[in-house]
Specification:
Layout (H helix, E strand, L loop, with lengths): L5 E4 L3 E2 L8 H17 L5 E6 L2 E6 L1 H13 L8 E7 L4 H8 L2 H13 L4 H8 L3 H8 L6 H8 L5 H7 L5 H11 L5 H10 L2 E4 L5 E4 L13
Parallel strand pairs: 2-4, 3-5
Antiparallel strand pairs: 1-5, 3-4, 6-7
Length: 222
């Protein structure tokens, strides 16, 4: 049976949170743009009705690609009105991932993981990407302080994912204190890679935080 869909103005489609795409995610959006330009929109946006609003629950990157195409003036006329499929309100998985708090999202993903679901199965169940599942699971590797910062909305999932690359949780906390909650993901990565984050001990001494163990041994002096 062919999929039934409706269309709506792009301005009628809303995402639960505002996200700035950069780095690898921006490249993904650009790849989607290229695919749409060549083949059209192969999969309609999935939305959920909340009052008069159409909340996007699957297809945020596709919508971002369409908006970029409209901005630069290359949006196909056939996509001025965007195809969408309505997801029913009784789909609790979709409700969770689009409307619940960071902590609730984390608990849902972790619960499925503990039940033995694979990353792909979790992504399919919750209507999110596999990368989104990986990002949320990375929160389990954070210190308690950083988990609370993420759950409280003080740091983003991008920041959380990057902090989680540090295996030592005490170092995570010290880095968070040194950089503050407003440091973006690239800045945090840069500090980790350089290993130059300095903590002033107040007695003319400092502690330099190593980013991670040296992977290759240094050559011995002759």
């Amino acid at each position: 049976m062919p999929m039934q869909f409706k269309t709506a103005k792009m301005s009628d489609l809303q995402t639960p949170t505002t996200r700035i795409f950069f780095g690898d995610r921006l490249k993904e959006v650009q790849q989607i743009q290229n695919s749409i330009a060549k083949h059209g929109l192969l999969n309609p946006i999935r939305v959920m009705q909340r009052g008069k609003k159409l909340i996007v629950v699957d297809g945020k990157k596709r919508l971002a690609a369409l908006r970029r195409m409209r901005f630069i003036g290359c949006l196909p006329h056939s996509l001025v009105n965007v195809p969408y499929v309505m997801v029913t309100q009784n789909n609790s998985a979709v409700q969770h991932m689009s409307l619940l708090s960071n902590k609730e999202k984390f608990e849902d993903v972790l619960s499925l993981c503990k039940k033995g679901y694979s990353l792909m199965e979790i992504a399919s169940t919750l209507y999110v990407s596999k990368q989104c599942v990986k990002d949320i699971l990375s929160v389990s590797r954070l210190s308690r302080q950083l988990q609370q910062a993420y759950f409280g909305g003080n740091i983003s999932i991008d920041q959380a994912r990057v902090f989680a690359t540090l295996p030592n949780k005490n170092t995570q906390d010290m880095l968070f204190v040194a950089l503050g909650s407003f440091a973006n993901a690239p800045d945090i990565l840069r500090a980790i890679r350089n290993g130059e984050t300095v903590i002033d001990m107040g007695d003319e001494n400092v502690i330099i935080l190593p980013s991670r163990p040296i992977e290759k041994p240094l050559p011995l002096a002759a």
